[in-house]
Design goal:
Strand order of the largest sheet: 1-6-5-4-2-3
Radius of gyration: 16 Å
Bound molecules: tetrahydrodeoxyuridine
Number of strands: 6
Structural class: alpha+beta
CATH architecture: 3-Layer(aba) Sandwich
Number of helices: 3
Helix content: 10-25%
Strand content: 15-25%
């Protein structure tokens, strides 16, 4: 028997003051993009912003539906926006944040499994790491160096 351990390294910043100006700006864009969220059912407003290599920033929020399984996560919405507006753009960083009417979110929330898989496809496709910044409504900021680090033992197109 052999055992392997797959690890994830997370950098933790106690406040936005510790971030680089670019990261601070992107996180602020994500926070402002809460207005793009449509979440009347969960009241859990997730927003995501991406910084592209052409310096453009795009944002999106989750889009809910009365038929719950049709809800779209914020990450999916912003990725689709990138694919349609700048199909060949590389995403340097994605910032994801959340506001909830139900409770104070003082810790980062992390993308759901489906979003991780979708983000991984984009990361592999662009051939370069996409950094991820996570923050709740307040509290610490987590930085991950790539999508891959969020999805150890991942499934990807190399086996097909
Ligand atoms: N949600 C996202 O937008 N991103 C995630 O990664 C997790 C969940 C949304 C979906 C739904 O509108 C609400 O959060 C509650 O699950």
């Amino acid at each position: 028997m052999k055992e392997i351990t797959l690890g994830t390294t997370i950098k933790i910043y106690e406040s936005v003051d510790e971030l680089s100006p670019n990261d601070r700006k992107l996180l602020l864009e994500a926070k402002n993009a809460v207005t793009k969220s449509y979440a009347p059912y969960s009241n859990f407003k997730v927003s995501a912003s991406v910084l592209l290599h052409n310096d453009k920033i795009l944002s999106g929020g989750n889009q809910e539906n009365a038929s719950f399984p049709l809800c779209l996560c914020a990450e999916m919405v912003v990725m689709s926006t990138v694919a349609s507006k700048y199909p060949n753009a590389k995403i340097l960083t994605m910032a994801i944040t959340v506001q909830s009417k139900n409770k104070d979110i003082d810790m980062p929330i992390s993308p759901c499994g489906a979003c991780r898989q979708t983000l991984l496809e984009y990361e592999n496709r662009q051939g370069q790491a996409m950094r991820i910044l996570l923050q709740g409504d307040k509290g610490p900021i987590y930085e991950l160096e790539s999508v891959k680090s969020l999805l150890p033992l991942s499934f990807d197109g190399s086996v097909l």
